[in-house]
Write a structure and sequence with these properties.
The chain is α/β, with parallel strands linked by helices. The protein contains 2 helices and 5 strands. The longest helix is centred in the middle third of the chain and has 8 residues.
């Protein structure tokens, strides 16, 4: 699984599949990128799907406190690609 290095030597693990415009899938609540397992294949036919394990969840490191949205901002702001579409699952 690819790793994105965050400030303070933290790591964010993610899956990247497909080709085309980037599409970032953010899982909600607890869990991992696996929340999107049924969607990744079909979406990868048209997009470069990037599905991270959010900080402190899945295989990603737990960020030091205080917890802020800085980690998510690092992922999108350091990319050389156009700004991705960000999605979030609904329901439990």
């Amino acid at each position: 699984m690819p790793i994105f290095e965050l400030p303070d030597a933290q790591t964010l693990h993610y899956r990247e599949v497909g080709s085309g415009p980037p599409l970032v899938l953010l899982h909600g609540g607890y869990g991992s990128w696996m929340h999107w397992i049924r969607n990744v294949g079909p979406l990868a036919r048209q997009f470069t799907v990037i599905a991270p394990d959010m900080p402190g969840l899945g295989d990603s490191a737990t960020p030091p406190e205080p917890w802020t949205p800085t980690a998510a901002g690092c992922v999108t702001s350091s990319s050389s690609r156009p700004s991705p579409t960000i999605s979030s699952p609904r329901g439990p």
